[in-house]
Amino acid sequence: MAVRSCQTSPAKGGANLGAARQQSILTLINQGDVVSVGEFATSFGVSPETIRRDIRALEEAGHLRRVHGGAAPKRTFDLTARRPVAERLEVDREGKILAAKAAMALFENDMNVFLGASSTMLLVAQELVRSDKRLTITTNMIDIATIVAASGRCTVTLLGGIVNPQTHTVGGHEVLKSLEDRLFDLTVMGTSAVSPVHGILGPTKYHNLLVTTLASRSHQTSFVMDSAKFGRRDAHLALPLSQVDFVATDSLPSGDIAAALEEAGVTVLLPEGGHENRAEPTQQTGTDNQ
């Protein structure tokens, strides 16, 4: 029987370290972030020139793109969801406003609903204030809670958790824990991207945990998004389309997205005047939804 030595020569060890470092770089990049040479060098304890060589090698292998001062995913994810909410409100704003108007068809008086946190969902909250809807609302977005509560028509609960000053949200384990004994007629959320293959996508693993938790506790699950989100990519699967009931958007999807939504049985809601495939949202009755 042949026996191979476990001893590694210095050259071999250096090559192994370089390969491990390049794999770590690729893992970080594929999360959707643009990372600088300086950040990599500090993280791995090597010189910036070493990192530049790693990035060149990975680019030549077709794994990433070099950008000024760093590296980015080869196929660019939508990075808008990583920006502060005040900036995101101005991106595709007209489409978001129309999608928010389309979402009004989801709500019926006396519903118990969860409103997720996003720039589009903030516009949904503003539309609700202008409507005459009377709702019981739970949310993890501070701005949504204050805007809707000020209307005087809705009972609003803001979940507790760790405050994110950029997104104006609360998050973390405390939010997930507080949802364990809650049930909702309807959950309405935003999203950063929709894939015809994978479904609703999000920027972090936490988005997956929150969305799947809410979907399991809601009679119906809906997403509100401008049509620019169709076909975009992001780092994490949030929810398969088979678990989505409604999508409210500004214009009718086409191509692979339209086919995927139809196959999954998702009802598409458009603003007034658009062509829409509408099914009425239903309110769960009884004390088990309180």
From TrEMBL:
Q: Write the record's keywords in alphabetical order, separated by commas.
A: DNA-binding, Repressor, Transcription, Transcription regulation
Q: Name one Pfam family in it.
A: HTH_DeoR
Q: Which residues form the HTH deoR-type domain?
A: 18-73
What InterPro entries would the database entry show? Answer: ArsR-like_HTH, Carb_Metab_HTH_regulators, DeoR-like_C, DeoR_HTH, NagB/RpiA_transferase-like, Tscrpt_reg_HTH_DeoR_CS, WH-like_DNA-bd_sf, WH_DNA-bd_sf
Q: Which stretches does UniProt call biased (Polar residues)?
A: 280-290
Single GO term (MF): DNA-binding transcription factor activity
Q: Where is this region: Disordered?
A: 271-290
- What is this protein identified as? DeoR family transcriptional regulator
